[in-house]
Fold this sequence. Notes:
Helices cover 31% and strands 33% of the residues. The chain has two helices and eight strands, in the order αββββββββα.
Amino acid sequence: MRDSNLFGEVIAEALTTGTVVRFSAEGTSMYPTIRDGEVITIAAVVPDDVVRGDVLLCRHDKRLLAHRVVHVTTRGPERVFRLRGDATADCDAPVGADEVVGKVISVCRNGRVAPLCGRAARLRYTVRRSASGAKAFIYSWRSRRGASRAAFRV
């Protein structure tokens, strides 16, 4: 595992000079959008330009996390973001604009680059999330229906 503090400093410094940064993601919290070992591309971002649905790379405790923005608020003059991994049920602790390192703009999967920002990316995410919810509902409905039928068999 890489040293998150040093790694974050190097990325932040590169982004301030206008460089786009690529590295292999670790973990499964953003599955299926970002899979373990896939290469993600990070670009600098102005906190005022962040919208719900963007994927941000942020400092969170002593590590870096790339999670999706689910809510944007303000506390005084500062913007605050609520983030959550696509594969997780709970949100992370709120993140201030000063903890944002950059924005994940794409993921490279099987040699193809898939953008993670813009209307098309948000539409893909919404469709995937809706399909996943519908699939879970159908499976739970089938299991309840099967369980109730089994209870009445003699």
